[in-house]
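The passage that follows is intended for readers who have already worked through the single-chain material. We present the inputs for a multi-component assembly, then the predicted structure in tokenized form, and finally a short commentary. You are encouraged to pause after the input and sketch how you expect the pieces to fit together before reading on.
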Amino acid sequence: MNLDIRAGEFLAIVGGNGSGKTTLAKLFNGLLRPTAGTVTVGGRPASGRTVAQLARIVGYAFQNPDHQLFCSSVEEEIGFGPRNLGCTDAEVASRVEHAIEAMDLNHLRKQPPLSLRLGDRRRVSIASVIAMSPRVLILDEPTTGLDAAETKDLMAHICKLNREGSTIVLITHDMKLVAEYAARVVVVAQGRILLDSDPRGAFSDPEILRQSNLEPPPVTLLAHRLSAHGIPKDVVSPQELVLRILMERGAGR
Amino acid sequence: MKALSMRDVRFKYLGSERWALDGISIDVEKGEFVTVLGSNGSGKSTLCMLANGLIPHAIKGQLEGKVEVFGEDVLMRSVAELSTRVGIVFQEPESQLFCMSVEEEIAFGPENLSVPREEIRERVEWALELVGMKGYNDRAPSSLSGGQKQRVAIAAALSMRPAMLVLDEPAYALDPVGRMELYSVLRNLKRKHGMTVILAERDPEEAIEFSDRLVLMKEGRVVGAGNPRAIMRSPDRLSSIGVSAPQLAEVAALLSKSLRDCDFSFISVDEAEDEIVRSVLSGSGGGRH
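Having made your guess, compare it with the prediction:
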């Protein structure tokens, strides 16, 4: 595999179960080390650096938030990382405030994290990663188990982080999520990168997606079926498809 | 006789302040495929577990109202008795697979009912074929993909020869191809076998195509029900219960709004292609090909 991620990108790594997407992401912060080849983080080789050192640059929020929550309050949970980094009390407090604000957790700060609803637990797990002030945030299937409203809410917070300069790496097999949020899509199958493009490019070839156990969203599939009638194949939203259909209808008259 | 009948049902989990189900009345006919839609906390799972007696027999709480499965009050029947009428499949296949081989997994239920060996063998083969996994008998469930595991879980429920199958967000952890495999099994159960099915979902994208009826739930109540086409005509009804409208429904609603002489109600890509080509694009494209 060869892959470069630029600072400030919003990247989705997509692939079916067992495609290697999580393995790939775990190389980014040293949770896994490559058998061969090199990983460079922030311009320097990762090989000489510990996970603790890399975690300051690359934060990793696990798919199951319960794997990383263990403190008795949300505040304490979020402060655990920076405290461990040796930050002063004042620095810990300011990072906790920043993370609580970023994930909108003020009303839950005294609650035990494991007693919260899944959507809230997920935001706490991401906040505890944000408190490490990483420049890169890896989110492993962050919307699994969330309903439509919770997903929208979480993604709004993630987009804000991205606008403020964080690099976002989203690991997912939810194609609608990718279409809506990612600027770049890396399709992984059987441990290899099959495709690296924007969502339009990625969705325009269903065969490549299927090799990775993925399927374009229904609206893109419909656009493919209508391509003989002049509809482009790279449509990614219902609004766009309807616009294209109306334009084509106008042209036909 | 209804497959499932609930009358004014309320249920509160032990130790909880909130009614998980808060006055539900619902009937499911034999052979009907009902998809229950709702966001997290709407009461879908509670409804599923009531339908096979796990509530209140194994999961305790305060139950009011009447729940009948094939004419029998669930309170009067044990979970073991009900398990021969109602099969259940949960979100995560891992939580219900525990044997060393696929065959043992599927045979486990009927073995516990002391079904004769020859018939168990027949049931295993029948169930494997039904879920499209013939020949996987000796495979370890742990070596299978998510979609395959979930299909084994369905086969294990089917080997009890239930009259009704209840599935609680079975596609939860599956990738898109796993989802397609799962839904094609459900489509077959409906079309070829006429099985009575209750499917709880928070994403209706695939299930609308072969559901007879959608039931919309919010905060423990049924807030709407109807055939998929009717509900898809107003995607707002779904967003109001925290469920995202299928993309095709959005396309249909937007097109119908923009073209006053058209009224679309497609619920599958095939139908959408047909209807759009026929009534909107028939004049275009031809010259180019």
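Commentary: DSSP finds eleven helices and ten strands in chain B. The two ends of chain B are 56 Å apart (CA to CA). How closely did your sketch match?
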